[in-house]
Each structure stands twice: as C-alpha cells, then as structure tokens.
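Continuing the batch. This is chain 6 of the set; chains 1 through 5 are on the previous pages. Same settings as before, nothing changed between runs. Recording input and output for traceability.
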Amino acid sequence: MRGCVYRMKPILALSMLLLTACVPAGEIQTAIPSESPLATEIPSTATMEPCAYVEATEALPDVTAQIDQAIKQLQPDASGRAEAYGENCVYASNGQSTFSAMETDFYITINVKKLQDDNELGGWIVNTMKIIEALPPTSIAGPQAGFVEFTFKTRDNQQVLRVPIDKYKSLPPETQPADLIPVLFPNP
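Output for chain 6:
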C-alpha cells in the first residue's frame, strides 16, 4: 500500500498541472463563485490623459462689478475687483486646459489722507469686509477663504496690505478699526 501512495503523488501533480494548463490565463478560479456573481462595470471616460497643473487666476466679472460698485459708493475714486485663484490642468495633446478654483481674492484701491492713520485704514478694512461678507456665497469661487489686498494711496505714496479673510473673521467682534492695523500687521 505504501508504494501505491508514492506513485499516486506524481500522477496527482501531473493531473493538476494538465487541468490548469487547459484554462486560459487569468481565469483560474481560486474560490467557489457565489450564487449570483456581482458585475462590476469599469467606468470609461473620453479622455483619461494626464495633465500638468499650473497656477492660474480667472477673472470674475460679475463679482468685480458688484465689489467695484459698492466700493465706489463709499469713495467715487476707489476701485475693486475679484478674481479666482487656482490651477489650470493643461493637457499636452491639445494644449486645452480646465480651471479649478481654490479661492476668491479681492483687490481694493482706496485714496486716503495719511498712510499712518490706523483708524482710517482700519475703517476701510471693516467697511470692505462688510461688502465682501454680503456677497452671495454662490458668487465666491473655491473651497477656501482668500484674501483682500488693499492698496492705500496718498498723493505721493502708497501702502499695500494683504488681509487674509480667515484671519479677519477670527478677530474678536469688539475689535475697533484703529486696532485692526496693529493686530493684523504686528510688525510694520
């Protein structure tokens, strides 16, 4: 009996080899199929081509018109504009691109009497932020808060201050306009 077992092992191994050789590659079953196999459909898209991401901006003409009009009501010589900041996904095959916004940034230019008057500059920051906060949320592009860049001008000089919207919103509500400049920009 013992000799019979040793002779069956090579025959069993050869039989299994022959059986698996008859099944096309990739179709060898390693598990018993369920009663109702699940069909998984692989989605297909027209272009699955890779792209290169490049920083980009995109004009927001409707938001710019609203901001500019509102800021001009406070000072006719002032101006404001808005643009979306994000990335272009540029395709190598045809040079086309798709834009994805990350945030909306605002640019405000205002004439002031003195660049050292923290109360005047802070007042402009408060009034401008009220205008921006009043915009419909659907007009703001991108998932993250952007910034407001103020260009304060006098006759012979100017000062540019960039205020992150998140930072401004995190200030205590009782913060006075005169305190905004030293709080937002502690190191002049």
